[in-house]
Design brief:
By secondary structure, the chain is an alpha/beta fold. It is about 30% helix and about 20% strand. It holds the Pfam family PIG-L. This is PIG-L family deacetylase. InterPro entries: GlcNAc_PI_deacetylase-related, LmbE-like_dom_sf.
Length: about 475
């Protein structure tokens, strides 16, 4: 990731180093003028406190308000609590996506343990010490709300004042011809497994091999370049094979074979080839042999932006999707994700086939590495948005328990999500489990198993051609 995300990480680490330096100076003074044995004890306790409560990458104050605008005319109903039940003034009609805006304040325990709001049987978590406007996802709870039976209760936090309920109605996009744009293998499953597994005419296009950061494979006696090639082959295979678990056959899956983290550079020099940073390879055809159709980039195999855009335009004309599922260019900061949607929009301008709708997803965030917060299997509250985003509608379909399990198994098949946790992360999770009450799922150790396997999937709806 680059840009704002890297700037925030750099600032975060600088602040940590300054805090560590100040702490070491205080400990040195204590060792000189006090009992020396306090120094190692306080160092140990400080490290445990850091791992339990201060290790999250949270690049904003928990007191900051989230900022969301929705399209003009979106129904917005006043909401209040009565004996713990949610009451709204007005009718929600046939709305399928319900978003409740309310100010949340943490209690004193909510500074040590993750504040939780229980919405019926669903749970949505927020930042420790939260004291600002947040957006809860009530999608799937419409019947209980209409009957006046929807309970809201806080744990380690409470709702302040009154709220606003945004009621949004969407078609079922799973009934349309769908194309999922995945910058890397696993992005389609993380964002949209529940959606594409319900769709009769889904296609999945993966843009890169995902070959970098292949040090794990060097344990097999490979050089870094050889390890990168192996990882690229494995992840390319994942992108073609794993969608079958969700009902998408291989003849509707395409691997374009461009190189990881090179898409932004390609965009700035459209005719120039950009080889892999780690394998040194400069021909995308090596992982394309199982593709169901010939593409413009097959002619020379050059990893260039012009070939990428031409490939995408050809795929639009071949699969003729009505709906495109692609990364949110303003919300997801991963440089390949931003470039993937940019390439798609350029391809639409070239294509004779014109889709109708973008469904935008965010698998990464600028400001909060833990979102969606809380344990797997529960709902997805809206992510932090501290700057104004385009006023898009939201669509948040619900995933039954059996689909959540299938999604977890699809993720478990991904080679990049099978890597063992480093010892430091294992210790951190143990400390957080004991002191902060956090839990991770039994389906896998990777953090995405917690973040992506949820009651909801979440998409921002952006019409095309308007």
């Amino acid at each position: 990731m680059q840009g704002r995300k890297q700037q925030l990480l750099k600032r975060h680490r600088r602040h940590k180093r300054l805090a560590l330096l100040a702490g070491l100076l205080l400990l040195a003074l204590l060792g000189i003028f006090g009992a020396w044995w306090w120094v190692p004890l306080l160092l140990l306790l400080g490290w445990i406190a850091h791992e339990a409560w201060f290790a999250d990458h949270l690049f904003y104050a928990p007191r900051d308000d989230y900022r969301y605008d929705f399209p003009e005319g979106t129904p917005c109903l006043p909401a209040r609590l009565q004996d713990g039940h949610l009451r709204v003034e007005g009718e929600i009609g046939e709305a399928d996506t319900l978003i409740l805006a309310w100010r949340i304040e943490a209690g004193w325990l909510g500074r040590l343990l993750d504040p939780q709001l229980w919405i019926g049987a669903d749970r949505q978590d927020f930042e420790r010490g939260v004291a600002g406007l947040r957006y809860l996802n009530l999608s799937g709870q419409g019947e209980a709300l209409r009957r006046g039976e929807l309970l809201l209760r806080g744990r380690f936090c409470h709702l302040v004042g009154e709220g606003r309920l945004y009621a949004m109605r969407n078609p079922d996009y799973a009934a349309c011809r769908l194309m999922v744009i995945a910058p890397h293998a696993d992005d389609a499953e993380l964002a949209a497994f529940g959606l594409y597994s319900r769709c009769q005419e889904a296609s999945i296009v993966t843009l890169t091999q995902g070959e970098i950061e292949a040090e794990h494979y060097q344990r097999l006696g490979l050089s870094l370049a050889e390890a990168a090639r192996l990882k690229g082959r494995l992840r390319a295979w994942d992108s073609l094979a794993i969608p079958l678990w969700g009902g998408v056959p291989q003849n509707r899956c395409v691997q374009l074979g461009y190189y990881c983290l090179q898409l932004p550079a390609m965009a700035e020099a459209p005719q120039q080839p950009f080889a892999s940073r780690e394998s040194g390879d400069c021909d995308v055809r090596g992982v394309r042999r199982h593709n169901p159709l010939a593409l413009p980039g097959d002619a020379d195999g050059v990893p260039s932006w012009s070939n990428l855009v031409a490939d995408l335009a050809a795929l639009l004309e071949h699969f003729r999707p009505e709906v495109l599922v692609t990364p949110h260019p303003e919300l997801d900061p991963h440089s390949d994700h931003v470039a993937a949607t940019r390439a798609l929009l350029e391809a639409i301008q070239l294509s004779a086939w014109q889709p109708q709708t973008l469904l935008l997803y965010a698998n990464h965030l600028h400001d909060n590495d833990r979102w969606p917060m809380g344990p797997a299997g529960h709902g997805i509250a809206l992510p932090p948005a501290l700057t104004t985003l385009p006023a898009d509608l939201l669509w948040s379909p619900c995933l039954p328990a059996e689909v959540q399990l299938d999604k977890a198994m699809a993720l478990a098949m991904q080679h990049d999500l099978q890597l063992p946790l480093p010892t430091k992360k294992r210790l951190r999770r143990l400390i957080q489990r004991l002191l902060a009450g956090r839990r991770w799922p039994a389906t896998g150790e990777d953090e995405f198993m917690r973040k992506a396997v949820r009651r909801h999937e979440l998409f921002w709806v952006r019409p095309l051609g308007e």
